[in-house]
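dumping the sequnces here before i forget
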Amino acid sequence: MTEREYNECVTTYADNVYRFILKNLRNEEDARDVVQTSFEKMWVHRDEVDATKSKSYLFTVAYRQMIDHIRKVKRVQLKEEFNEGIKIQNKPANNLKKILDEALARLSETQRTLVLLKDYEGYSYEEIGRITSLSESQVKVYLHRARVQLKEYLVKVENVI
Amino acid sequence: MMRIDRHNYEECFILYWDNELTASQKQAIENFVKENPDLQEEFTVLGEARFTPDSKIQFEEKNFLLNSSTINITNYEERLLSYIDDELNPEERKEIERSAEKNPLVQKELSLLQKTKLQPEAELVFPGKSDLYRTEEKISVIRMTWFRVAVAAAIILITGFAVLQLVNANRVRDDVARVDEAKTPSTKSGNSSTSSEGQKSPDQTPVDERTTKVNTGDNKKETGTNKKNDIKPVIENKDQQSSVVAYQPENKNNLPKESERPGEIEPTKVGNTEVAILDKKDIDGATAAINTVLTDFDVTPKDNISLYIPEPEKEKGGLKGFLRKTTRVFERRTKIQTTTEDNKLLVGAFALSLK
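..and the predicted 3d for all of it:
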């Protein structure tokens, strides 16, 4: 990967990675840190990175960075996460997008990651498996379960409204 | 069986209509109703309050229940999820779409699942993108073949020589200017001598005396302009000759190729020839006519200056042009930019790698 290819990668994918991480972490600063570190890693290892697979590489690195970050944060602020869950339940839901965001927040980390990689980036089960170090069938099962949960949440909330 | 009487007939009637009694029991009930006509109506109403199945109501999606079809009650959710995730081949996709058209249950489920699909938010943009861009800090290495090295060496030599020439030319010019400066006051003093004689330096007195003589003789003659031009150099050339002679040896020390530098030599040459002509004229004895013009002394210093000023300019331009040309040729031949993208001139900081 050349310097130019790296910079093109920044132009093309920085926003995508940022969205993916931000939706998972729900904290702009943390998301920015993760994205920055990911690009730094890619720059350092640019000689080993195949330019055609730069996006996958970037998402894999960012995903690992994010998991590391979550583990670190979890050890420190377990209580805050719990509160957030309650907050979401109390929030009035106005439109589908909002409801979906709430539903997404209620998924497990893995499920959320899978849904985002599928819906935002359109990765196949196989590609998602490579990024998250899961088998293709695991991805499929987790993803389907997540989707059904999202659906049930939608139905429930719609009935309430 | 219990005995039927007017106290328990209702229960017996229900059992009758619910078809829970044997044939003989049913017969006993029927006989009882006949015996008690006032209970006939109640017996009939109970019989009418039963439901019969509506044969018009049919389950239309019978096929959906058959395991033989590709999308059925057991697999439809998984198929729909795969459809949502875009993991089906075109044929399977079509099948799902067809099934959704026919089957409201599938249709409903599909639209619900489609709602769960998240859309990336374009307004979410990474804020510090400019920090992520990088440039490699590396010294640009120019690959050079022996031929290119030779060209570069030649250019360095030529440039060096040209600079040397330029420096020398400047020095010579300075010398000439100095000589001129030294000379012009003397002519000026000659000029002033028209009004006051006797203050001359010993070697200039003959000339000055001559001019003063002429001055008194032909003051009225204004038409002799042609001759004026011819004569001016007399003094000038005589002075110049001496001055040129004076610095010529110096010149030769600095510049061996004097003959290649016409700009510098021109004045002496012209001077020499003109001096020769003038000498002839002097011999011809046209002294009176010529000397008349010598009275206009104020012209000579001007001409003196104009002889030298343009020459160095010409020389400088030629050198500059030559340097520019060599640079251009070098750039074209080697395809090496002498400036970077941001207009910085690269001077002397290149590495050579020899093949």
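The domain at 93-161 of chain A is CATH 1.10.10.10 (Arc Repressor Mutant, subunit A).
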